[in-house]
Amino acid sequence: MNVLFVHNNFPGQYRHIARALAHNPRVRVAAIGSSTSRAIDGVDLVKYSMSNAEVSSAHPFARRFDMECYRGEQVLYALSSLAATGFVPDLIMAHPGWGETLPLRTLYPDARILLYCEFFYGMYGRDVGFDTEFPETGADGHVGLHLKNASTLLALADCDAGISATAWQRSTFPELYQSKISVCHEGIDIDIAKPNPDAVFRLPSGQELRRSDEVVTFAARNLEPLRGYHVFMRALPHIMAKRSQAQFVVIGGDEVSYGAPPPEGMTWKSAFFDEVAGRIDHQRIHFTGRLPYLDYLSALQVSSAHVYLTYPFVLSWSLLEALSSGCLVVGSDTAPVCEVLTNNENGLLVPFFDIQQLAERVVEVLAYPRRFNPLRSQARQTIVDRYDLARVCLPKMTAFIQGQAQAMAA
Question: Which of 19, 303, 304, 378 is the most buried (most CB within 10 A)?
Fold first, then answer.
């Protein structure tokens, strides 16, 4: 069987299943990705590059789709290069979010196309309109948001089946297509992300933190409102005032992954740090930037309280990694988080915007750590039972693919 992966930033969410298939002697695996993609042993990777396509002449509503068409064209060229090697896919696994799926059904009418259904944009119950501090953009913005789904809708019409990482993410897609979509998370390597009572986390200053210290952690790919960075920062003055020995480790970059950009000349990190700068102890807050994976896990392993906040949006791997590492997570009671966390069972939930309650819960965890040890144990057990890469998620994904292959052969 020939399997083709198509993902802008390959391997992305496919890294585990791509490795597993590449080790199967009966499967030939190839991938198409942009210049940022990374090779995996046993996978024939063909990269494409995106020139600075000029889309300003297109109607503003159509510019995203116009750019996606340019990307689809590059995928078409990359597929032609792959075809020259004699590779014709039987099964295609693709992310529809950037237009890369546009040529697939035309080129491969007999292939089984399986989508990674990450998120479907909408005006209600999701990220847009959730935070009134950052107001909506009016009717024009809503039309533009709706049109962001154009290539995804075409892909859903073309595909045979799809996968969503969580049930809530699946629920964002139109009901018409939900019957096509199964739920299976990519999985967490619980043998790496695990509790370690002897862990040491070294700060950029050289200071070392251990489990015996009071450590509050916060992590996001980038420090921005969608992941609750502003709420976390506004809770710091109260927490610092109540816990004079606590150290605060903030992991994440200065760019924008999601949502609106910060004011001109600023980053979201600096904007919300400046807001509380006069009310916090600068010596006890440590911005690490992005970290190598094992260093990041060390920070989680020494954490006394880990704060995870998010708008109703794609669930971060970091939440599951924190739970797998035995963290006591104080999370927002937003739908994606509530699918994993149950208040006072495997973590603590607080309203996303309730800064005072967030601060009080973190202070309570720091003041009475033994009281919350059962929640830490249950947090770890949640990941072992539901999100273990090797024993739960990868076997489930493999079975899904085998079922699709059998359907193709029938």
Answer: 303
